Amino acid sequence: MSGQHTLPDLPYSYDALEPFISRQIMELHHKKHHQTYVNSLNAAEQAYAKTSTPKERIALQAALKFNGGGHINHSLFWKNLAPSSSEGKGNGGVLRDGPLKDAIVQSFGSFENFKKEFNTTTAAIQGSGWGWAGLNVTTKRVEIVTTANQDPLLSHVPIIGVDIWEHAFYLQYLNVKVDYLNAIWNVINFEEAEKRFLEAVNGSKL
Ligand SMILES: [Fe+2]
């Protein structure tokens, strides 16, 4: 289907995040799930352009929110991951000394405590959703927040987002969400996270 939005390429190969996220998950997640959000967003926008009444436009709001959020969130998620340093493949999992680490330590006491609090909060999501480390633009502090379904993060500037839909982990981790959450820190791209953090504290818009 043609449309304004297109599926972005992954910045690494499908097997690059192994053993923490399997090739099978990455292929399905990117080629099938994300592609479907892109296709459905384009369809909803095309339908919206043809509407002539408020009622017709209101009827499309849910599809725009769900598929638009799915496209935004997954586009962010792929860039938020990187091949693991512990596997000798890349920089994933390494939080260098710098402004993001300083902000995390300021808010959570330590990097380890940050990950622990993130996992506890995120594991408690009921149903599908996303876990986030986001910048509170008022306090300039990093906070842990969650969103339901495919709702994008609007209350904070997203620094790190983790997909908590079962399609993100079930084929590898089955029902053990906490194992997925523990594993994913090995492939978080903290360089990308720090870039977002610096853009956010320097006053970028939400
Ligand atoms: Fe997903």
Automatic annotation (TrEMBL):
InterPro entries xrefs: Fe/Mn_Superoxide_Dismutase (IPR050265), Mn/Fe_SOD (IPR001189), Mn/Fe_SOD_BS (IPR019833), Mn/Fe_SOD_C (IPR019832), Mn/Fe_SOD_N (IPR019831), Mn/Fe_SOD_N_sf (IPR036324), SOD_C_sf (IPR036314)
Domain Manganese/iron superoxide dismutase N-terminal: 4-82
GO cellular component: mitochondrion
Key word Oxidoreductase present: yes
Cofactor or coenzyme needed: Mn(2+)
EC number: 1.15.1.1
Residues noted as binding Mn(2+) in the record, renumbered to the chain: H29, H74, D163, H167
Enzyme class: oxidoreductase
Membrane-spanning parts: none
Catalytic activity: 2 superoxide + 2 H(+) = H2O2 + O2
Domain of life: Eukaryota
Manganese/iron superoxide dismutase C-terminal domain sequence ranges: 98-196
Keywords: Antioxidant, Manganese, Metal-binding, Oxidoreductase
One example GO MF annotation: manganese ion binding
Record's function text: Destroys radicals which are normally produced within the cells and which are toxic to biological systems.
Similarity remark: Belongs to the iron/manganese superoxide dismutase family.
Protein name stated in the entry: Superoxide dismutase
